[in-house]
Here is the input.
Amino acid sequence: MYKQKKLKNGLKLITVPMTGTKTITILVMVKTGSKYENKKNNGISHFLEHMFFKGTKKRPTTLAIAGELDKVGAEFNAFTSKEYTGYYVKVDSSKIKLAADIVSDMLLNSKFEEKEIEREKGVIIEEINMRHDNPLIHIEDVFEECLYGDSPAGWEVSGEKENVLKLKRQDLLNYLNSQYGVDSTIVCLAGNIAGGSEKLISRYFSRLKKADFKDKIKVKEKQAKPQIKIYYKKTDQANISLGVRGIPVGRKEEFILKVLSIILGGSMSSRLFTELRERSGLAYYVRTQAEFYTDSGYLTTQAGVPVKKIEEAVKIILDEYKKLKNILVSEKELKRTKDLIRGRSVIKLEASDDMAGWYAERAILSDKILSPEDFFKKVNGVKALDIKRVAKKIFVNKGLNLAIIGPFKDERRFKNILKF
Here is the structure.
C-alpha cells in the first residue's frame, strides 16, 4: 500500500513498497511541460531537462554524473511531456542514498554553463530532426496540432528549432525559479524500501523552496466541423492519425474510453488490427490510444498505409468507430479486453520504475491518486452500454480530426471522406 506525506518544507513524498524486488526507483516529477510555456520560450521545459545532466559543483561534468551511476549499474533518464517533467534513477536498493544524492544534486545545484547550453542546442536540434524523420513518432505531434492549433497544447514538446537557438542562460534560470518548487514537485520512491525513506528525502531535498509558479492556459475544447492537418513529406507510406476529442483525466468516462480504445486497436486481436492489417493488408502497424490531460483528451487511431489507399483506410477506421455507436460489444469481447488490460498492467508494474511512474503521474495530473487495484475495479465496472453511450457522444462528424504525414499538399482531397 502506498503512502503519501508532505515533508517539512512542503515537498510531497510518495512511497510504494514492493515485495519480491531488489531494486528501488527514485522518481522526481515536476508539474510543468510544454503546456506551461509561451510562444517565445516554447521548448524550454525540454531544454531545461537536458541541462540538469550537464554538471553540478560536486559533479562538474556529464561524465561525472553518468560515471557514478554507471559504476553501480543504475538505470537513469529523464523525460518531458505536455504537463510534467520527470527524472529517475533505478538502482540496487542498497544504493538508494547515492541515487537520491545525485538526483537532488542535479536538480538543486546544476551550473548551467554558457558553453554547455550552446553545445546542447545542437543535440536538441538533432533530437527534433530525429523525431521529424520518424513518422510513427511525429504523427502524434501533427495530430495534436490539428486538434489544438497554435496554442501551447498544440505545440511540440521539443519546441521549434528557431526557439531553441534563441534561448539563453537567464531564460532557463527564470523558468527554473518559476516552475521548480515544492508546490509543483513530487518525489516517489518505489521498490524495496527500507526504513528512513522520509528522513532520506528530507535530507537531500531540504533546500527546495516554494517557487513563483506560473500555471498553464486551460484548453478550451471547441470544434464545429471536421479538421485536417497535413505535414508534407515525400514518403512511400502515408502515416495517418484519425481521432476525436475525448475527456480530461479523472472523469468517470476515462475508464470507458480506455476499454473502448483497446477494443478498437489495443492489441493484435483488436478490431482495427484485424480489419486494416489482417483482412485488408493495408498496414503493418495499427494502434488506437486514448490520451488524458488535466484539461483535455482525445482518442485516435494511428496507422501507416499505402499513399494511394488513404481513403480506403480512413473508411475502415470510421466504420469500426460507427459500429461501436450502433452495436453493443459482446460480453465475451468485453471480458477479454478487461483481462488484457489487467494482464498487461500487472506485468508492467512488476518493475519499480514503472510503479513509480504510475503513482507520480497520477499525483501530478489528479487530486486523487488511483492505485492499480482501484484502476482495475474501475475498468471491471465498465458495461457494454457504457461503451455504446460514450461512442455515440464522441464519434460525431464535427469532432473528427485527421492528421497525415505524406506527399500531399491539398487538404480538400480528404474533406469528403471525413464523415460517418
The mean pLDDT is 97. The first strand starts at residue 3 and ends at 6. The CA atoms of residues 30 and 85 lie 5 Å apart. The radius of gyration is 22 Å.
